[in-house]
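Lecture notes, continued. The same structure-token format from the folding unit now serves as the input rather than the output. Read the line below as a description of shape only.
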């Protein structure tokens, strides 16, 4: 898939495909994405790297989670998490309360978790493979 072929009506979540916490987060979002707003791409995949290069993120500083709205914007760190929870709606909208914290504090918390994610939650040797039922939610 090429950048021009990305679905314009979906928000794309780029995630660390070998991170257990990131994979659990993807599963969490999949179960709650009732409006079918999201598609997923592993950062390590060819398409993930194309998107990162397209939006101009330094691959050495690529976060464990990036929310990309094709042709519009991208969000990283705490901003990405808060945008995703807002899109999930309902109870998860309450996370928007965290926006009262200064962005530096939000990102400090995010960075602390991201830095320790492999130690706390472990790491896979390869990226996750979606089940046949969920395959359409993952872009390649």
């Amino acid at each position: 898939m090429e950048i021009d072929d990305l679905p314009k009506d979906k928000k794309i979540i780029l995630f660390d495909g070998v991170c257990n916490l990131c994979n659990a987060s993807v599963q969490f979002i999949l179960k709650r994405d009732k409006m079918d707003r999201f598609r997923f791409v592993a950062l390590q995949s060819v398409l993930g790297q194309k998107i990162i290069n397209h939006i101009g993120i330094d691959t050495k500083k690529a976060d464990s989670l990036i929310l990309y709205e094709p042709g519009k914007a991208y969000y990283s760190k705490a901003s990405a998490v808060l945008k995703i929870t807002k899109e999930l709606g309902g109870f998860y909208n309450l996370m928007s309360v965290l926006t009262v914290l200064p962005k530096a504090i939000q990102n400090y918390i995010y960075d602390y978790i991201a830095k320790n994610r492999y130690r706390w939650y472990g790491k896979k040797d390869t990226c996750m493979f979606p089940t046949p039922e969920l395959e359409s939610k993952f872009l390649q």
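Point for the exam: The CA atoms of residues 78 and 110 lie 6 Å apart.
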